[in-house]
Amino acid sequence: MSEFSRILDLYEELSSKLKLLESEREGMCEQIATLSESIQGQSPEQKNNSGGNMKKEKLLTITQAARAVKIGRNNLLKVMRENGLLHESEPMRNSPTKYAVRQRLLVPKTSEFNRGPVTAQYITALVTAKGIVWIRDLIEKPTIPQAS
Fold first, then answer.
1. Tell me: the pLDDT tens digits for 59-79?
2. Separation between Cα atoms, residue 71 and residue 87, nearest integer Å
3. d(Cα 75, Cα 109) in Å, to the nearest integer?
4. Which of 16, 83, 124, 131 has its Cα between 20 and 30 A from that of 104?
């Protein structure tokens, strides 16, 4: 019975640590949302006073997200493909995966253009504040040194 109580204590300890990490991550998401609003030239007060009680989340393009995490756009796309946030193969290349959409890291945006008489549709990925935090964590995670 003592083994069970020890496991239960460990579970409760891990649960409390997880709650702390989740609240810390939410705080970071709010900070990133505030920063992205200031990048766009609109303060949070202006956005809240523009009407409506719903808080609309700011979505960033891949280029804006790359600037926010201070890497190049193509390198960001590569990191996102390698970690399963974007599709790797044609015809869905660089469109968000179901996993990324369900986790609310990316939002798909459907657009179209005319190629002669034919209208072609394509999907681009917009990055949420939560997605920026996730991407930053992916970039900053320590890499395992490889033997030469």
1. 999 999 999 999 999 999 999
2. 20
3. 21
4. 16
Paired with 125 in beta bridges are 108
Count the helices and strands in the chain (H runs, E runs).
Answer: 6, 2
Give per-residue burial for 53-91: e unless 16+ CB within 10 Å, then b. Answer: eeeeebbbebebbbebbebeeeebbebbbebebbbeeee
Size (the chain), residues: 148
Look-up of token digits 């609310």: 104
Residue 95 · residue 124 · CB < 8 Å: yes
| Three-state secondary-structure class, residue 127 | strand
Rounded to whole angstroms, the Cα distance separating 90 from 72 reads: 22
* Six token digits for residue 14: 């891990």
The residues, ordered by sequence, that sit 6+ positions from 72 with a Cβ below 8 Å of its Cβ are 66
Give the separation between CA 32 and CA 57, rounded to whole angstroms: 11
Residue 9 tokens, joined: 């204590």
C-alpha angle with apex 58: 49 to 103, nearest 5 degrees?
135
- Tokens representing 67? 């600037």
pTM of the model: 0.57
